[in-house]
Write a structure and sequence with these properties.
10% of the residues lie in helices and 43% in strands. By secondary structure, the protein is mainly β. The chain has 2 domains: 2-22 and 345-394, no CATH class; 27-336, Neuraminidase, CATH 2.120.10.30. A 4-stranded antiparallel sheet has the order 1-28-27-26, with no helix packed on it. Strands 2-3-4-5 form a 4-stranded antiparallel sheet, with no helix packed on it. A 4-stranded antiparallel sheet has the order 6-7-8-9, with no helix packed on it. It is globular, with a radius of gyration of 24 Å.
Length: 400
């Protein structure tokens, strides 16, 4: 500070407010780290972004985790039989988590702050929980029936009681998404004859399990992965030619082609769809937008979003995994898609040092205005001005 004063730099009273604002604003992009070593991936997020679930893994083992802003990444404590563990979904209030662990065989579970409960299997072989209804009343997934170790059936658990969804007579059937009260369930089946083919299905109590009619997208493989609480919107993918196409389906419109990739999640009102290959966000207003283009300014040089697997019910928070250059590994991330700017201390190029390069970047952009200025808009007021320059000067030399 004394050196800067000798340079004749004056700090107005409002500078304190600028720094306070920077500290109070939530970061639009949060890397969630890993458990000890390896990589991590996030699959589900609560309504307000306060709870994220997924797995941290290395070449030896997967570990189910629950992440919160206050406690960071914490492993979900399972039983002594635990091998690989996976947390696949969480309720909007963040209180119930479902998934499975694998120790010779796989066991579906649900977890609450009071403890963990293993769910019954069809035949004591394998099972996995893949989704839970927003109201927490129904869990869906898969299980192997007695005497048929090569067969997988789509199942649901209601109040801990297990039942199948019927069958389309195919050897592999999994439920991956469920509406409130379990009224509508979606997933995929696989047939082996005449050729190996995946097909998206939709289930209701009245109609049972039926192939989802995707119209022009029905020719190849398909799978449904998520559904809105009212059961009106379904998302997933369908193969067209040699590539996969993400789709958004409603009974009124049929399947809408959202472009290359796979749609994994949808907001509660069906207005926001997220997916991967490459990672994207879609709305009716904006169309499809790739995360690395739309939110690339939040990433350090060399980092990128790799997969988007989940979205909060209000469509605000997106989770998945990305490559983080600073740690040289793939990490789970939490992205606040409503924010387009990340306040920071003046390290514009994110090299860990506030130096001449950062100062020049702000000077070259000085006077620019707009909503997508990138990191040169240090205080996120949509203008590169004196306030941003002062933050760089105030922190000049920090981290160097």
């Amino acid at each position: 500070m004394s050196t800067l004063r000798k340079m004749g730099v004056r700090f107005p009273l409002c500078l304190t407010t600028i720094f306070a604002t920077a500290l109070l604003n939530a970061q639009p992009l949060t890397w969630l780290g890993v458990y000890e070593r390896g990589d991590s991936v996030a699959y589900g997020v609560s309504l307000n972004g306060s709870v994220v679930v997924g797995s941290s893994f290395d070449f030896e083992q997967h570990f189910a985790f629950r992440w919160t802003a206050s406690n960071g990444m914490q492993l979900i404590n399972l039983s002594s039989r635990t091998g690989n563990t996976y947390a696949r979904a969480v309720t909007p209030d963040g209180t119930i988590i479902v998934g499975h662990d694998s120790y010779f065989t796989s066991y579906a579970f649900y977890w609450t702050p009071t403890g963990l409960v293993y769910l019954p299997e069809l035949g004591g072989w394998d099972s996995g929980a893949l989704a839970i209804s927003p109201d927490g009343s129904v869990i869906v997934g898969w299980s192997k029936p007695t005497g048929s170790p090569q067969v997988i059936r789509a199942v649901r658990w209601v109040n801990g009681n297990l039942s199948t969804l019927g069958t389309l007579g195919r050897p592999f059937e999994k439920a991956t998404g469920v509406s409130n009260n379990g009224a509508v369930i979606v997933g995929w089946t696989r047939e082996d004859s005449p050729d190996t083919r995946y097909r998206a299905f939709r289930w209701t109590a009245a109609s049972g399990m039926q192939d989802l009619d995707l119209g022009a997208l029905s020719a190849g493989n398909s799978a449904a992965y998520a559904i809105t609480p009212d059961g009106s919107v379904i998302v997933g993918y369908a193969s067209v030619g040699s590539g996969d196409r993400a789709f958004r389906w409603t009974q009124a419109t049929g399947a809408q082609d959202l472009g290359t990739g796979i749609a994994y999640a949808v907001s509660a009102d069906g207005s926001v769809v997220v997916g991967s290959d490459p990672p994207f966000r879609w709305t009716a207003e904006t169309g499809r937008q790739e995360l690395n283009t739309l939110y690339g300014h939040l990433l350090s040089s060399g980092s990128y979003f790799d997969e988007a697997y989940g979205v909060s019910p209000d469509g605000r928070y997106i989770v998945g995994k990305g490559y983080r250059w600073e740690t040289n590994r793939f990490e789970a991330f939490l992205l606040d898609s409503f924010a387009t700017c990340a306040t920071h201390d003046g390290d514009v190029d994110q090299n860990g040092c506030v130096d001449d390069a950062d100062l020049l970047a702000v000077l070259f952009a000085f006077g620019s205005t707009g909503t997508n200025l990138g990191r040169v808009d240090i205080n996120c007021d949509e203008s590169v001005d004196d306030a941003d320059l002062l933050i760089v000067l105030f922190n000049f030399g920090s981290g160097c």
